[in-house]
Amino acid sequence: MNRPDDAIAHHQASVQISASPEAVYDLVSDLGRMGEWSPESLGGSWKDGGSGQVGDWFEGHNRSGEREWTRESEVAVAERGTEFTFVVGGVEANCTWWSYQMSPVENGTLLTERWWVVNKTPTLQTLTDEQFQGRVAFTKGSIDTTLAALKAAAESS
Question: Which of 31, 53, 72, 139 is the most exposed place for a label (fewest CB within 10 A)?
Fold first, then answer.
């Protein structure tokens, strides 16, 4: 899924991984393990018997410095080996989107992580412009860190 033109903040980065698109998908869609790769995520858990299908909800647990929080998210796209996308606060709220797209390439997968904000979550609404821009900068660095860790995990399997 590509970001819409009305996104108020966005970033994307890619990494080539020596693993199949299906293996990479299995990693990025494994909520419990995301905390192994992301500098902010502590992982997540499915709600109401969800398993990662479109429309399923999960709780994502996060930490930044001393602050910890949990946010509910909804799966927007779930195509094994192709794309896993979710939205913080749900599709209808159209706030913060996270998308992982896998493209087959010679000797593996090109994984692209995309992040964009259309509407600020209630927490983001409380930030000054300077604080919001700091959050954007942090997220950009986090994406690079997450991709490098995902690559290492996929290639060590």
Answer: 53
State how far the Cα of 74 lies from the Cα of 98, in Å rounded to an integer.
Answer: 10
Asked if residue 20 belongs to a domain, the reply is: yes
d(CA 147, CA 47): 26
List beta partners, residue 88. 73, 96
- Measured in degrees and rounded to the nearest 5, phi and psi for residue 28 equal -70, -25
Looking at the structure of the chain, the number of domains it has is 1
Predicted confidence (pLDDT) per residue in 25-68, tens digit: 999 999 999 999 999 999 999 999 999 999 999 999 999 889 89
Distance CA 49, CA 58 (A): 10
8 A C-beta contact, residue 1 and residue 83: yes
